[in-house]
Amino acid sequence: MPVATPSKVRAQIDAGNPDPIYLLVGDDEVEKSALAGEFADLVDEGLRAFNVERIHAGEMTTGERLADGVGAIVAAARTLPMMSPRRVVVVSQADALLMPKRESEAAARALDEFEKLLNNPEPLSVLVLVTGALDRRSRLYKLLLKQATVVECGAIADQADAERWVKNRVAAAGGQIDPAATRLIAQRAGTDVQRLRGDVDRLLLYTLGKKSVTADDVRELVGPAALQDDWALTNAIEAGQGGEALRQLALLVDAGAAPEKVLGQLGWLVRSKFPVIAPSRLAAAVDAVFRTDTDLKRSAAESRVLLERLVVELSERKRAQP
Q1: Alpha carbon distance 14, 9 (integer Å)
Q2: Least buried of 119, 163, 166, 184, by fewest C-beta within 10 Å?
Q3: For residue 223, what pLDDT is reported?
């Protein structure tokens, strides 16, 4: 079966044309939970009590519990829908089911029954398995790759996905956000999940106690849509422009760039450029990079302060005369 994006799955739900089995994977727990909940839209709201079943697999830790749990899943999936075209069965923490901690005869029989369901799914039911990390070498995982639609949660394909991600993230934190603010965050961060997460986390902290996040809050706190040049920081240092270098560092940090990545760029600059543009400062620059690396690993101070200090040191030198 194909690998699908959350947006494609939502289009299938809206069209009422789902696949029989879905495997929701990825490290974005909020997105997985939100998408799993949306499968209930396949059933009219008044009929969901009869046709939407949620099963928690996290406690299937023994052979007997696994057997009982698989029996409940199979029975739920094989039950015909009542006055509805579809029946939905959502299994959360399904990794406990797919990777049992203890092997036993009861567990083996249960997994055999589950494999039969996967090989011959009920056409009028939709089985949704929500999992964490899985053993990709296991027989069940390989079977799921053939029989299920695998959905990678956390990957954002377009602005509509980004807006939905922002809305779900704020709702999961118990907050509210205006549609205009949602659009503005998505426009500025694009499909960069790391930056979206950083922007939303800062906004939630900034607007703590407010009724809703507004577009004005976004304009106040969130930086520009994108950096003009990924190497603007190193270019400014090479030109000896300390103020511009600090500005570019702030843009990088605010955009969610990892301190290790920034330090890697600065280390490349020292190794590649300083022997030509500032040979008299090379030894000191190398020492400064190594000191900053050590301080970052020891958490000797806030990473932003350490990087700012390094940028200042690297910028305060005169360009060598040709």
Answers
A1: 9
A2: 119
A3: 58
